[in-house]
Amino acid sequence: ATTKTVRHFLDISDFDTATLREILKRGRDLKQTNGTAQHPQPFRGLTLATIFEKPSTRTRVSFEVGMRQLGGDVITLTGREIQLGHGETIADTARVLSRFVNVIMIRTDHETKVHEMAGAASIPVINGLTDTSHPCQIMADIMTFEEKRGPIEGRVVCWSGDANNVCQSWIHAAARFGFEMRVAAPASLQPTADTIAWAAREGARLVVTEDPKAAAEGADIVVTDTWVSMHHKDAPARMALLAPFQVNDALMKLASPDAIFMHCLPAHREEEVTSSVIDGPQSVVWDEAENRLHAQKGILAWCLNA
Ligand code: CP
Ligand code: NVA
Fold first, then answer.
1. Per the annotation, where are the binding residues?
2. Domains of the chain as residue ranges with CATH
3. What is the pTM of this model?
4. Which of 89, 94, 259, 262 has its Cβ near the most Cβ atoms within 10 Å?
Protein backbone atom coordinates (compact mmCIF):
# COMPACT_ATOMS: atom_id res chain seq x y z
CA ALA A 1 0.00 0.00 0.00
CA THR A 2 1.18 3.52 -0.68
CA THR A 3 1.18 5.98 2.19
CA LYS A 4 -0.11 9.36 1.16
CA THR A 5 1.17 12.40 3.03
CA VAL A 6 -1.69 14.70 3.87
CA ARG A 7 -0.86 18.35 3.27
CA HIS A 8 -2.10 20.22 6.34
CA PHE A 9 -1.63 23.97 6.80
CA LEU A 10 -1.47 24.33 10.57
CA ASP A 11 1.26 26.83 11.39
CA ILE A 12 3.86 28.87 9.54
CA SER A 13 6.44 27.36 11.88
CA ASP A 14 5.76 23.89 10.35
CA PHE A 15 7.03 24.96 6.92
CA ASP A 16 10.31 25.69 5.23
CA THR A 17 10.75 28.95 3.37
CA ALA A 18 10.58 27.35 -0.08
CA THR A 19 7.13 25.84 0.55
CA LEU A 20 5.76 29.10 1.96
CA ARG A 21 7.16 30.92 -1.09
CA GLU A 22 5.55 28.33 -3.40
CA ILE A 23 2.17 28.86 -1.71
CA LEU A 24 2.45 32.65 -1.99
CA LYS A 25 3.45 32.45 -5.63
CA ARG A 26 0.41 30.33 -6.44
CA GLY A 27 -1.78 32.83 -4.62
CA ARG A 28 -0.23 35.72 -6.57
CA ASP A 29 -0.66 33.88 -9.87
CA LEU A 30 -4.32 33.20 -9.11
CA LYS A 31 -4.80 36.86 -8.18
CA GLN A 32 -3.64 37.83 -11.70
CA THR A 33 -6.59 36.09 -13.32
CA ASN A 34 -9.12 36.75 -10.57
CA GLY A 35 -12.47 37.84 -12.01
CA THR A 36 -11.50 36.98 -15.61
CA ALA A 37 -12.49 34.13 -17.92
CA GLN A 38 -8.91 32.84 -17.60
CA HIS A 39 -9.32 32.14 -13.88
CA PRO A 40 -8.74 28.38 -13.59
CA GLN A 41 -11.18 26.00 -11.86
CA PRO A 42 -8.86 23.37 -10.39
CA PHE A 43 -11.21 22.62 -7.47
CA ARG A 44 -14.11 21.32 -9.58
CA GLY A 45 -15.73 18.42 -7.72
CA LEU A 46 -13.94 19.28 -4.46
CA THR A 47 -15.64 20.44 -1.25
CA LEU A 48 -14.29 22.47 1.65
CA ALA A 49 -15.89 22.20 5.10
CA THR A 50 -15.27 25.17 7.35
CA ILE A 51 -15.85 24.93 11.10
CA PHE A 52 -16.21 28.08 13.16
CA GLU A 53 -16.18 27.85 16.94
CA LYS A 54 -15.66 31.63 17.05
CA PRO A 55 -17.15 34.46 14.97
CA SER A 56 -15.61 35.54 11.65
CA THR A 57 -16.23 37.87 8.74
CA ARG A 58 -13.05 37.86 6.60
CA THR A 59 -11.97 34.26 7.11
CA ARG A 60 -15.42 32.89 6.43
CA VAL A 61 -16.17 34.99 3.37
CA SER A 62 -12.69 34.68 1.84
CA PHE A 63 -12.58 30.89 2.18
CA GLU A 64 -16.12 30.46 0.83
CA VAL A 65 -15.66 32.82 -2.10
CA GLY A 66 -12.16 31.54 -2.89
CA MET A 67 -13.24 27.90 -2.97
CA ARG A 68 -16.20 28.71 -5.24
CA GLN A 69 -14.19 30.94 -7.59
CA LEU A 70 -11.85 28.01 -8.17
CA GLY A 71 -14.75 25.72 -9.04
CA GLY A 72 -15.22 24.01 -5.68
CA ASP A 73 -18.04 23.85 -3.16
CA VAL A 74 -18.22 24.83 0.52
CA ILE A 75 -20.13 23.78 3.63
CA THR A 76 -19.92 26.07 6.63
CA LEU A 77 -20.50 24.71 10.12
CA THR A 78 -20.74 27.11 13.00
CA GLY A 79 -20.94 26.90 16.79
CA ARG A 80 -23.92 25.02 18.07
CA GLU A 81 -25.06 23.75 14.66
CA ILE A 82 -22.60 20.87 14.84
CA GLN A 83 -22.00 18.02 17.24
CA LEU A 84 -18.52 19.21 18.23
CA GLY A 85 -20.04 21.26 21.03
CA HIS A 86 -22.11 18.28 22.24
CA GLY A 87 -19.33 15.88 23.08
CA GLU A 88 -18.44 14.24 19.77
CA THR A 89 -14.68 14.33 19.78
CA ILE A 90 -12.66 16.39 17.35
CA ALA A 91 -11.05 13.18 16.10
CA ASP A 92 -14.39 11.51 15.36
CA THR A 93 -15.61 14.64 13.60
CA ALA A 94 -12.43 14.62 11.52
CA ARG A 95 -12.91 10.96 10.55
CA VAL A 96 -16.49 11.56 9.46
CA LEU A 97 -15.82 14.77 7.55
CA SER A 98 -12.96 12.98 5.77
CA ARG A 99 -15.58 10.67 4.20
CA PHE A 100 -17.64 13.56 2.81
CA VAL A 101 -15.37 16.44 1.90
CA ASN A 102 -11.84 17.07 0.58
CA VAL A 103 -10.41 19.70 2.93
CA ILE A 104 -11.31 21.18 6.33
CA MET A 105 -10.70 24.68 7.68
CA ILE A 106 -11.18 25.09 11.42
CA ARG A 107 -11.30 28.18 13.65
CA THR A 108 -11.23 27.19 17.29
CA ASP A 109 -9.75 28.01 20.69
CA HIS A 110 -6.92 25.63 21.60
CA GLU A 111 -4.18 24.87 19.12
CA THR A 112 -4.27 21.25 20.34
CA LYS A 113 -7.73 20.88 18.75
CA VAL A 114 -6.35 21.74 15.33
CA HIS A 115 -3.63 19.14 15.79
CA GLU A 116 -6.15 16.57 17.01
CA MET A 117 -8.24 17.19 13.90
CA ALA A 118 -5.24 16.91 11.59
CA GLY A 119 -4.10 13.75 13.36
CA ALA A 120 -7.38 11.96 12.70
CA ALA A 121 -8.33 13.42 9.31
CA SER A 122 -7.33 11.69 6.08
CA ILE A 123 -7.76 15.03 4.26
CA PRO A 124 -5.92 18.36 4.70
CA VAL A 125 -6.76 20.57 7.68
CA ILE A 126 -6.21 24.34 7.59
CA ASN A 127 -5.87 26.48 10.73
CA GLY A 128 -8.29 29.41 10.44
CA LEU A 129 -7.18 30.93 13.81
CA THR A 130 -6.67 29.59 17.29
CA ASP A 131 -6.07 31.34 20.60
CA THR A 132 -2.34 31.28 19.77
CA SER A 133 -1.96 31.49 15.98
CA HIS A 134 -3.39 32.87 12.75
CA PRO A 135 -1.19 31.60 9.92
CA CYS A 136 -3.53 32.36 6.98
CA GLN A 137 -3.61 36.00 8.04
CA ILE A 138 0.15 36.35 8.01
CA MET A 139 0.46 34.73 4.57
CA ALA A 140 -1.90 37.46 3.29
CA ASP A 141 0.09 40.09 5.17
CA ILE A 142 3.41 39.02 3.63
CA MET A 143 1.77 39.03 0.19
CA THR A 144 0.48 42.55 0.85
CA PHE A 145 3.79 43.99 2.03
CA GLU A 146 5.65 42.51 -0.94
CA GLU A 147 3.12 43.91 -3.42
CA LYS A 148 3.62 47.36 -1.96
CA ARG A 149 7.30 47.46 -1.08
CA GLY A 150 9.12 44.43 -2.50
CA PRO A 151 10.84 41.56 -0.68
CA ILE A 152 10.24 41.45 3.07
CA GLU A 153 13.60 39.79 3.75
CA GLY A 154 15.83 42.11 5.79
CA ARG A 155 12.97 44.51 6.59
CA VAL A 156 11.79 45.58 10.04
CA VAL A 157 8.31 44.85 11.40
CA CYS A 158 7.10 46.67 14.53
CA TRP A 159 4.23 45.13 16.47
CA SER A 160 2.86 47.45 19.15
CA GLY A 161 0.11 46.05 21.39
CA ASP A 162 -0.97 42.69 22.75
CA ALA A 163 1.44 39.92 21.67
CA ASN A 164 -1.51 37.73 20.70
CA ASN A 165 -2.25 34.94 18.20
CA VAL A 166 -1.61 37.18 15.20
CA CYS A 167 1.67 38.39 16.69
CA GLN A 168 2.76 34.80 17.29
CA SER A 169 2.29 33.94 13.61
CA TRP A 170 4.26 37.10 12.68
CA ILE A 171 7.11 35.79 14.85
CA HIS A 172 6.97 32.43 13.03
CA ALA A 173 7.09 34.31 9.73
CA ALA A 174 10.10 36.37 10.85
CA ALA A 175 12.10 33.15 11.11
CA ARG A 176 10.94 31.81 7.76
CA PHE A 177 11.01 35.02 5.67
CA GLY A 178 14.10 36.58 7.27
CA PHE A 179 12.84 39.90 8.60
CA GLU A 180 13.41 41.55 11.97
CA MET A 181 10.43 41.35 14.30
CA ARG A 182 10.18 43.90 17.10
CA VAL A 183 7.38 43.30 19.58
CA ALA A 184 6.46 46.14 21.94
CA ALA A 185 4.00 45.00 24.61
CA PRO A 186 3.45 45.40 28.35
CA ALA A 187 5.49 42.89 30.36
CA SER A 188 2.47 40.70 31.13
CA LEU A 189 1.30 40.56 27.50
CA GLN A 190 4.57 39.75 25.75
CA PRO A 191 5.35 36.62 23.72
CA THR A 192 5.68 33.54 25.92
CA ALA A 193 9.06 32.19 26.98
CA ASP A 194 8.40 29.20 24.68
CA THR A 195 7.88 31.46 21.69
CA ILE A 196 10.99 33.49 22.49
CA ALA A 197 13.01 30.27 22.83
CA TRP A 198 11.56 28.97 19.54
CA ALA A 199 12.56 32.18 17.77
CA ALA A 200 16.09 31.94 19.14
CA ARG A 201 16.42 28.30 18.06
CA GLU A 202 15.13 29.09 14.58
CA GLY A 203 17.44 32.07 14.14
CA ALA A 204 14.67 34.67 14.02
CA ARG A 205 15.67 38.26 14.71
CA LEU A 206 13.16 38.94 17.50
CA VAL A 207 13.32 41.97 19.78
CA VAL A 208 10.86 42.12 22.69
CA THR A 209 10.49 45.44 24.50
CA GLU A 210 8.09 47.49 26.61
CA ASP A 211 8.99 50.60 24.59
CA PRO A 212 6.83 51.10 21.47
CA LYS A 213 8.91 54.08 20.35
CA ALA A 214 12.11 52.04 20.25
CA ALA A 215 10.28 49.29 18.34
CA ALA A 216 8.87 51.71 15.76
CA GLU A 217 12.17 53.47 15.02
CA GLY A 218 12.82 53.13 11.27
CA ALA A 219 10.34 50.22 10.87
CA ASP A 220 9.00 49.26 7.43
CA ILE A 221 5.70 47.94 8.81
CA VAL A 222 3.81 49.03 11.90
CA VAL A 223 1.20 46.43 12.79
CA THR A 224 -1.21 45.93 15.65
CA ASP A 225 -4.42 44.14 16.56
CA THR A 226 -7.29 44.39 19.00
CA TRP A 227 -6.45 44.72 22.68
CA VAL A 228 -9.19 42.22 23.52
CA SER A 229 -9.22 39.08 21.39
CA MET A 230 -12.24 36.81 21.17
CA HIS A 231 -10.90 34.50 23.88
CA HIS A 232 -9.97 37.25 26.36
CA LYS A 233 -12.13 37.78 29.42
CA ASP A 234 -10.22 40.60 31.14
CA ALA A 235 -11.07 43.57 28.91
CA PRO A 236 -10.81 46.49 31.39
CA ALA A 237 -7.37 45.44 32.68
CA ARG A 238 -6.07 44.97 29.15
CA MET A 239 -7.33 48.35 27.95
CA ALA A 240 -5.45 50.10 30.77
CA LEU A 241 -2.23 48.14 30.24
CA LEU A 242 -2.25 48.59 26.48
CA ALA A 243 -3.14 52.29 26.21
CA PRO A 244 0.55 53.34 25.85
CA PHE A 245 0.90 50.96 22.88
CA GLN A 246 -1.71 52.65 20.67
CA VAL A 247 -0.61 53.14 17.06
CA ASN A 248 -1.12 56.85 16.40
CA ASP A 249 0.45 59.57 14.26
CA ALA A 250 3.25 60.15 16.76
CA LEU A 251 4.28 56.48 16.62
CA MET A 252 4.00 56.33 12.82
CA LYS A 253 6.32 59.34 12.55
CA LEU A 254 9.12 57.32 14.16
CA ALA A 255 8.84 54.58 11.53
CA SER A 256 10.39 54.80 8.06
CA PRO A 257 8.74 57.57 5.97
CA ASP A 258 7.82 54.73 3.58
CA ALA A 259 6.29 52.53 6.31
CA ILE A 260 2.91 50.90 5.89
CA PHE A 261 0.32 50.30 8.61
CA MET A 262 -1.27 46.85 8.82
CA HIS A 263 -4.10 45.38 10.92
CA CYS A 264 -5.80 42.01 10.45
CA LEU A 265 -9.19 43.58 11.34
CA PRO A 266 -11.67 43.90 12.96
CA ALA A 267 -10.23 47.19 14.24
CA HIS A 268 -11.28 49.30 17.19
CA ARG A 269 -10.71 52.92 16.27
CA GLU A 270 -9.19 55.11 18.99
CA GLU A 271 -8.21 51.99 20.93
CA GLU A 272 -5.30 50.05 19.38
CA VAL A 273 -5.17 52.43 16.41
CA THR A 274 -6.38 55.98 15.76
CA SER A 275 -8.70 56.74 12.83
CA SER A 276 -6.01 59.08 11.53
CA VAL A 277 -3.68 56.10 11.02
CA ILE A 278 -6.08 53.36 9.88
CA ASP A 279 -7.88 55.73 7.50
CA GLY A 280 -4.66 57.55 6.57
CA PRO A 281 -2.32 57.30 3.55
CA GLN A 282 0.05 54.69 5.07
CA SER A 283 -2.72 52.21 5.86
CA VAL A 284 -3.06 49.16 3.57
CA VAL A 285 -5.72 47.36 5.60
CA TRP A 286 -8.30 46.94 2.81
CA ASP A 287 -5.77 45.47 0.38
CA GLU A 288 -4.57 43.31 3.27
CA ALA A 289 -8.12 42.04 3.86
CA GLU A 290 -8.58 41.34 0.13
CA ASN A 291 -5.37 39.35 0.05
CA ARG A 292 -6.88 36.84 2.46
CA LEU A 293 -8.79 35.62 -0.61
CA HIS A 294 -5.73 35.30 -2.84
CA ALA A 295 -3.29 33.94 -0.26
CA GLN A 296 -5.82 31.31 0.85
CA LYS A 297 -6.38 30.20 -2.75
CA GLY A 298 -2.65 29.46 -2.74
CA ILE A 299 -3.00 27.57 0.55
CA LEU A 300 -6.02 25.56 -0.66
CA ALA A 301 -4.26 24.73 -3.95
CA TRP A 302 -1.18 23.51 -2.09
CA CYS A 303 -3.24 21.45 0.40
CA LEU A 304 -5.37 19.92 -2.35
CA ASN A 305 -2.37 19.50 -4.66
CA ALA A 306 -4.64 20.92 -7.36
N1 CP B 1 -8.76 38.94 10.27
C2 CP B 1 -9.68 37.97 10.46
O3 CP B 1 -9.37 36.79 10.58
O4 CP B 1 -10.96 38.41 10.48
P5 CP B 1 -12.28 37.57 10.85
O6 CP B 1 -12.23 37.30 12.33
O7 CP B 1 -13.41 38.48 10.45
O8 CP B 1 -12.26 36.30 10.06
N1 NVA C 1 -6.60 38.58 17.86
C2 NVA C 1 -7.93 38.57 17.28
C3 NVA C 1 -7.85 38.29 15.81
C4 NVA C 1 -9.16 38.30 15.09
C5 NVA C 1 -9.03 38.01 13.65
C6 NVA C 1 -8.76 37.54 18.01
O7 NVA C 1 -8.28 36.42 18.24
O8 NVA C 1 -9.89 37.85 18.36
1. 56-59, 83, 107, 134-137, 165, 225, 229-230, 264-265, 292
2. 12-133+291-304 (3.40.50.1370), 137-288 (3.40.50.1370)
3. 0.97
4. 262
